[in-house]
Amino acid sequence: MRQLTNTILWIMRTGCQWCNLHQEWPNWQAVYYYFDRWKQYGTFKRINETLNQLARKKAGREAYSLALCADDQSVKLHTMICQCRGTDANKRVDGRKREFVVDTQGRL
């Protein structure tokens, strides 16, 4: 299980495609299966929240931020064919707009 965990974290850090995993690592379908389960159960959200709280405490701040900043980003998607696709007329971008919120130290 530790090898699956390390593989999932490596893929998330590097952005490698699932089918391009190293031969010595588990089969990519098995790794994706566990990645999908973690995503469904909110494991990544809990990991992110815990790491943010630890980093904030280490910096001498409260565990939870009292001030947040909301922003959005337009992402070009040339090959995407689905209902989620749109156009940002102001930026002249054909693709998808995504929103995110960060704390005062830039953490999601």
| Helical amount | 25-40%
Low-confidence stretches: none
- Apparent shape: flat
Strand content: 15-25%
- Give the strand order, joined by hyphens, for the main sheet: 1-3-2
Rounded mean pLDDT score = 79
Reading the helices and strands in chain order gives HHHEEE
Report the span from N to C terminus. 27 Å
Given the structure, what is the number of helices?
3
The biggest sheet, with number of strands, parallel, antiparallel or mixed sense and barrel status, is:
3 strands, antiparallel
Strand segment tally: 3
Structural class: alpha+beta
Report the radius of gyration as a whole number of Å: 18 Å
Q: What does this 3D model show about the protein?
A:
It contains three helices and three strands, in the order H-H-H-E-E-E. With 108 residues, the chain is an alpha+beta fold. Strands 1-3-2 form a three-stranded antiparallel β-sheet, with no helix packed on it. A hairpin with a 4-residue loop joins strand 2 (86-88) and strand 3. Helix 1 (2-14) crosses helix 2. The longest helix is centred in the middle third of the chain and has 16 residues, at 43-58. It is flat and about 45 Å long. The chain starts with a helix and ends in a 5-residue tail after the last strand. 3% of the residues are buried. The model has no long low-confidence stretch (mean pLDDT 79).
Briefly say what this structure is:
The protein has 108 residues and is an alpha+beta fold. Helices cover 40% and strands 21% of the residues.
Describe the protein's topology:
Blueprint: H1 2-14, H2 28-41, H3 43-58, E1 68-76, E2 86-88, E3 93-103
Antiparallel strand pairs: 1-3, 2-3
